[in-house]
Write a structure and sequence with these properties.
The protein is mainly β and 352 residues long. It has 3 helices and 25 strands. Strands 1-2-3-4 form a 4-stranded antiparallel beta sheet, with no helix packed on it. A hairpin with a 4-residue loop joins β17 and β18. The longest helix is centred in the C-terminal third of the chain and has 15 residues.
């Protein structure tokens, strides 16, 4: 693991990891910088810091590798910055803002790049402001092909954001947070392949087993592959729903009445079996299932969508980066202290 001794080896919640043959790049919650470690887990340096100047971040949201170049997205400053592996700033581009000439306010969207390929193809999505979301004016986001500066060149597909947010509206104001029972669409963005995969994980609850449907689209607007993964439908226990309702009422009243809170709460007929999706650096799609008592299970779908395998990992391990047999993930000990660990996937023969 990358956790040893000293402040550089102590982690808050890890949000993103990227790896090369030599280095591991780590982003953390509420940290405006990227820590760099050698492949053996030794701290080397931190790229970037909090601020608004060259090479600084206000709200570091995404980063990825282009060979030896680190490509970063700052949602707060609305810009992309490219760094060398030594931390030197190579280039900076300003992204579109809502209401600018390139992104008029009437469109309600600005472009958010997410992944970039060596040939310059960038995949991302349209995003909007919290005020527009709270007013209910946007119900779907576009998946877009972009320039490295974040200018949209084409819309590849649209995906619904229904049931992603818990929004209570009244004359007394608006409360905005994630849904306690999320079953909204997930999207995984692949830089090297220039594509995005949409995972529809909502169950209707009308049959004993139902499908999680996956559809992948390329920057050429072609559907690369589709797959349906069958899971048993499991109703959410009434006691769990009642507990969440009670907690929300305690937190939000008397500002909002119970009827307003209940209208905003989305309770699916069945719990979704998929809790997260990860785009592997090798083009594989990793779908994390709900935890069992002592382990977590991932379904790993091949880059061409034609095959998949099941991988079980310790329940405490959350995989953040994968490339072939090599994976990096975050684990938490009994005191809830996170650490980074490197694993190798080993195919075990099936016993007959």
């Amino acid at each position: 693991g990358a956790a040893e001794s000293g402040p550089e080896d102590e982690f808050s919640t890890v949000t993103q990891v990227a790896a090369s043959r030599q280095f591991l790049y780590v982003g953390q919650e509420n940290m405006q910088g990227i820590r760099v470690y050698s492949s053996d887990g030794r701290y080397r340096k931190t790229i970037g810091r909090n601020g608004g100047g060259p090479g600084e971040f206000r709200e570091l949201q995404y980063f990825s590798l282009l060979g030896d170049t680190l490509w970063t997205i700052d949602a707060g400053l609305r810009r992309t910055t490219l760094f060398s592996d030594t931390g030197r700033v190579l280039a900076t581009s300003i992204l579109d803002q809502l209401g600018t000439r390139r992104s008029p306010a009437s469109s309600r969207f600005y472009s958010m790049p997410v992944s970039v390929a060596p040939n310059g193809r960038v995949v991302g999505h349209g995003a909007t402001s919290g005020q527009i979301l709270a007013r209910g004016e946007v119900t779907a986001y576009p998946i877009r092909s972009l320039t490295r500066g974040g200018v949209a060149t084409d819309t590849l597909a649209w995906y619904s954001i229904a049931n992603a947010d818990f929004i209570v509206r009244s004359k007394r104001g608006t409360s905005y947070m994630p849904q306690p029972f999320p079953d909204h669409l997930l999207v995984a963005y692949f830089g090297a392949e220039g594509r995005a995969c949409v995972i529809d994980r909502a169950f209707s609850g009308r049959s004993p087993s139902e499908l999680v449907n996956v559809s992948c689209v390329s920057t050429a607007k072609d559907t690369v592959w589709r797959a349906g993964l069958r899971f048993p439908a499991r109703p959410i226990p009434a006691r769990v729903v009642d507990s969440v309702r009670t907690r929300l009422n305690r937190a939000l009243r008397p500002r909002f009445i119970q009827a307003e809170i209940d209208r905003a709460l989305h309770v699916p007929r069945s719990e979704t079996p998929i809790v997260d999706a990860l785009a592997g650096a090798d083009g594989t799609l990793w779908l994390r299932q709900r935890e069992s008592r002592d382990s977590s299970t991932y379904w790993v779908i091949r880059a061409d969508g034609r095959g998949r395998k099941t991988i079980r990992v310790p329940k405490e391990l959350r995989i953040l980066w994968a490339n072939g047999p090599d994976v990096w993930g975050e684990e938490k000990d009994s005191d809830d202290v996170p650490r980074l660990s490197r694993y190798r996937v080993v195919d075990r023969p099936i016993r007959k």
